[in-house]
Design a protein that fits this description.
Layout (H helix, E strand, L loop, with lengths): L7 H16 L4 H34 L4 H8 L22 E7 L2 E7 L9 H15 L1 H4 L19 H12 L13 H17 L10 H11 L6 E4 L6 H12 L8 E6 L2 H13 L6 E4 L18 E6 L30 H10 L1 E12 L8 H11 L3 E6 L12 E7 L8 E6 L15 H13 L7 E5 H6 L6 H4 L11 H6 L2 E2 H5 L2 H6 L3 H5 E3 L4 E4 L9 H6 L2 H26 L15 H15 L8 H14 L1 H10 L8 H8 L1 H24 L15 H38 L9 H5 L14 H9 L7 H58 L3 H42 L3 H21 L4
Parallel strand pairs: 3-4, 3-6, 4-5, 6-7, 8-10
Antiparallel strand pairs: 1-2, 7-9, 8-9, 10-11, 12-14, 13-14
Length: 911
């Protein structure tokens, strides 16, 4: 049976499971280093095992003896590049022995393999990481020793059981090269982890993560090429440098033909960055740790600052710095104040200082550096007068973790600086996609920014080349809106139309984009009224009908269908380019196996094919395709590396085609769980009323009822005991008085029917009836009657409370049962999927995968068409809201309401 390889989605799920084990004990900012450290430890050990196996085969083939092979396997010189020498105490799958002297005697202590460690787990893991670092000090010095699995979180450390379970999660993750669907899978998973931790860590994420979209803009603007050196002085987790390498691949260059350097101040972040580089296979990256402003670490052979072709950075916003003992103070022509959080332009000046004479840089900055006075004004003047400042790009707000303020990009370029007479201002702060926690730049937004920068020309309400003299006249205030105002024009209102009705023709004509693309829609939405206005057609009698009318209009549906047919034709024509990714002996295509080249080639081609239409802008056409490739990048890489393996078919697709009943059962369980959880959540609201009589109760009420039930149970039992005693007393009185009828037994009158299981308090009436029959008057009679009444009331109240608690518990038990069944079904589902996948041949898989690639492409472009359709609906609805009801109609309705009110007041006697 062929071994199933690990896909990115599967690896992400396994890593997420490992995160879940720690999530309850600490937050993401605290446990991320444990995940990264364990991932690196397991990967290093698996690669070590892989290399040892290869060495054994190689050396045996050369005729080397077993003893010499054993020596060679433990020689660290035989492990280099991506392979690290792993000492015995750090090996995942191999136990080891240690000799110790105790009481003058030598003892052998047997240590289990790391995956079997159950005691002193934290200490064992710490020593394992330390040993790997010591054995590979040149590459790993100070990278792993800072990870401490015994670190206190609050008042405690992680216990052995938690850490042992954590280890077992990684035992389920195979990390040899042969286990991966594509070579860079582990690097992709590491990036996913960093993004996952950034999403979880909130404000702290800004220390180590820059949104990938912003990084992409910086990389495209810098446009690095083979043979260049690239530097990030505030490297974080290394995203800028890694995207630089990927961009070079996309442009057809070799990833080994670029020099990558970085510096990071925070120790844990520097460690994450180093591991990120190594797990991405970038062993040549030169990443240093230190405060960049205070002590830049990259120097040339003359001990001067090293110069770079490209610099990209996202420095920490609004920091203070210490001027004392600054190394290379000549970097800063304009020294910023130490206090007041004004270090931003110190970073910019450092970056400019380390640029080569023809170098280019792009850096993220807060908006304040563009307009604040004092030393910051002098720094802007310095950049502009010397021609260094090439462009300022305004970005949307709330893009970055830790701050909602809008940021900008400064692009400084030494090439052509002496002749530069303008600064290009790009105002892109209105074009983005809103998110729950933060906003996001879409691929089309990135494309438009980069296009505007490369074009370097004026674009109305978006970009403008501003002469240096104009900026000087503004006292070097570089507030972007001063030069490029992208505020939308004020909403137009036609007073005549408001008064007399009708929709102004000029406002309808302003929607030319929709009328040009959606044939007949304008004529079917509006009919002539007079020379200046139109009326809504009889087909639109209500605002609520507009959405359905536009969506179902033939002009809209036909245009969308025609566009999608173009996309489908393009896909069929270019399918060979995609199929050429898969490795095959006969595959001589220029894009064979290169996802980056395929992306660049297809992106260019689809833009050309769809250039003749204007339903979508060129930026949207390219953005949609870029979005499509980003979504399926892991799949494309897998195809390029491993061909059409059935592991690329998503689990859900296999289940849907082979086991729909399993999916249906799980969906029903999930829906019912969600329904019940929503019900429990609603019950805790202050104004909750169980109008549907579901039986659910607020948590506080459940507790109160349980407490009350305990009291009532004690109460009715006490009354029952009292009742039995009083009945016995009366029986004894009757017997003593010689009035007891023949055959009368005490049990019948005093205890029968008075069990605690379901007490019959009225049975106490038997003794009272007997007393009445024999004309016996007892002082116990009134107390007995009270015990009967009060006991019965307490019992009945307890019974009702118990019933309500049972109804509530039934719902709670249902949730527990559903969750248990769901977990069982998930295990069953995984087994079914794996068995079904084993039966799928590569040819069958290819058909399914190609169809999925096609469908995702179609869905991506359809989403853009739906967005255009929604925009059309919104504009027509806006015209309805403005003009469908005239001011005269509103006044008439007001007057009628006023007259009706006066009539009511007269009836009530108010005149």
């Amino acid at each position: 049976m062929v071994k199933t390889k690990l896909t990115l989605s599967r690896l992400e799920n396994l890593l997420l499971t490992a995160c879940d084990d720690l999530r309850g004990s600490m937050d993401a900012s605290e446990y991320k280093e444990y995940i990264f450290g364990m991932l690196f430890l397991k990967r290093a050990s698996d690669l070590f095992d892989q290399r040892r196996t290869e060495l054994k085969i190689e050396l045996a083939a050369k005729g080397m003896g077993a003893e010499d092979i054993a020596i060679a396997l433990n020689d660290s010189d035989n492990y280099s590049g991506k392979y690290f020498f792993v000492p015995k105490r750090s090996r995942w799958n191999e136990g080891w022995e240690e000799q110790v002297i105790k009481d003058g005697k030598t003892e052998i202590i047997h240590h289990p393999a790391l995956k079997h460690v159950k005691e002193n787990v934290g200490t064992t893991l710490n020593k394992a990481l330390e040993a790997i670092e010591d054995a590979n000090v040149e590459a790993l010095q100070d990278v792993l020793k800072g990870i401490n699995f015994n670190r206190k979180i609050g008042q405690r450390t992680l216990d052995d059981d938690t850490l042992a379970d954590f280890v077992q999660n990684f035992e389920k993750i195979p990390l040899k090269d042969e286990d991966f669907e594509f070579p860079d899978l582990l690097g992709a998973a590491y990036e996913w982890l960093i993004k996952f931790f950034a999403d979880s860590a909130g404000k702290k994420a800004g220390e180590f993560y820059t949104p990938a979209e912003v990084v992409r803009i910086c990389v495209e603007i810098c446009d690095p090429r083979e043979g260049m050196s690239v530097y990030d002085p505030t490297a974080g987790s290394g995203g800028m440098l890694i995207q630089t390498r990927d961009y070079l691949r996309e442009c057809g260059g070799s990833a080994n033909e670029i020099s990558l350097s970085g510096q990071e101040k925070i120790g844990t972040t520097w460690s994450i960055c180093k591991m990120n580089m190594l797990l991405h296979g970038i062993s040549h990256a030169d990443i240093r740790q230190q405060d960049t402003i205070r002590e830049p670490q990259h120097k040339d052979e003359n001990n001067e600052l090293k110069r770079f072709d490209r610099v990209l950075a996202n420095p920490p916003f609004s920091q203070n710095y210490i001027k004392r003992d600054l190394i290379f103070p000549g970097r800063f022509p304009v020294m910023m104040p130490e206090k007041g959080k004004k270090a931003d332009l110190m970073f910019v000046q450092h970056m400019l200082a380390v640029l080569k004479h023809d170098g280019r840089m792009a850096t993220v900055m807060p908006h304040g550096v563009l307009f604040r006075g004092g030393e910051e004004r002098e720094a802007r003047k310095h950049f502009i007068e010397r021609g260094y400042l090439e462009a300022i790009i305004g970005l949307p707000g709330n893009l970055f973790y830790g701050t909602g303020i809008p940021a900008c990009l400064l692009v400084l370029n030494k090439q052509g600086a002496a002749q530069r007479k303008h600064v290009l201002f790009i105002n892109a702060d209105r074009e983005y996609r809103e998110g729950k926690a933060q906003n996001h730049l879409r691929p089309e937004d990135i494309d438009k920014i980069v296009h505007a920068y490369r074009r370097g020309e004026d674009i109305p309400a978006y970009a403008r080349k501003v002469p240096k003299d104009e900026i000087a006249a503004e006292d070097y205030n570089c507030n972007i809106r001063r030069y490029v105002d992208n505020a939308p024009p004020p909403e137009s209102h036609d007073v005549r139309a408001h008064l007399h009705g009708g929709v102004p023709i000029v406002e309808v004509d302003a929607l030319e984009h929709f009328w040009r693309n959606y044939t007949g829609l304008r004529e079917d939405c509006f009919v002539p009224r007079d020379a200046t206005c139109l009326d809504f057609s009889t087909a639109i009698t209500d605002k609520r009908k507009i959405a359905g009318f536009v969506a179902g209009h033939p002009g809209v549906t036909n245009r969308h269908q025609a566009f999608m047919e173009q996309v489908a034709t393009w896909w069929n024509d270019n399918l060979p380019n995609v199929e050429a990714l898969a490795p095959a002996a006969s595959n001589q295509h220029e894009n064979a196996g290169n996802v980056y080249l395929m992306r660049r080639s297809l992106l260019k081609h689809i833009a050309e094919v769809l250039s003749g239409q204007d339903l979508l802008t060129p930026f949207q056409v390219r953005g949609a395709f870029a979005n499509y490739v980003n979504l399926l990048k892991a799949d494309f890489k897998s195809i390029a590396a491993s061909g059409w393996g059935p592991e690329l078919i998503p689990d859900e697709d296999i289940l849907q085609s082979q086991f729909p009943e399993v999916l249906e059962e799980m969906a029903q369980a999930q829906n019912r769980i969600a329904e019940l959880q929503a019900l429990f959540a609603a019950a805790d609201d202050e104004d909750f009323e169980d109008t549907e009589e579901t039986g659910v109760m607020p948590g506080s009420e459940v507790k109160a009822k349980k407490d009350e039930l305990k009291i009532l149970n004690v109460e009715w039992k006490a009354h029952l005991k009292e009742l039995k005693s009083l009945a016995g007393n009366i029986f004894t009185e009757i017997k003593t008085a010689g009035l007891l009828p023949n055959g009368a037994k005490k049990g019948y009158y005093c205890t029968e029917g008075m069990t605690q299981k379901e007490p019959q308090f009225k049975n106490g009436e038997r003794i009272l009836e007997l007393a009445g029959q024999v004309l016996h008057s007892s002082d116990y009679a009134d107390a007995l009657s009270r015990a009967m009444e009060q006991g019965a009331m307490a019992w009945e109240r307890a019974r009702r409370i118990e019933q309500s608690l049972v109804r509530h518990k039934v719902l709670e038990d249902e949730v527990k049962s559903l969750k248990a069944n769901l977990k069982s079904n998930e295990t069953k589902r995984d087994d079914l999927v794996e068995k079904a996948r084993q039966k799928i041949s590569n040819d069958e898989a290819r058909i399914v995968i190609v169809e999925r690639l096609r469908q995702v492409l179609m869905n991506t472009y359809e989403a853009y068409l739906r967005a255009d359709q929604r925009a059309c609906i919104k504009t027509v609805e806006n015209l309805w809201s403005k003009y469908a009801v005239t001011a005269k109609t509103i006044e008439a309705e007001r007057d009628a309401a006023s007259s009706q009110l006066k009539a009511f007041l007269v009836e009530l006697g108010y005149e």
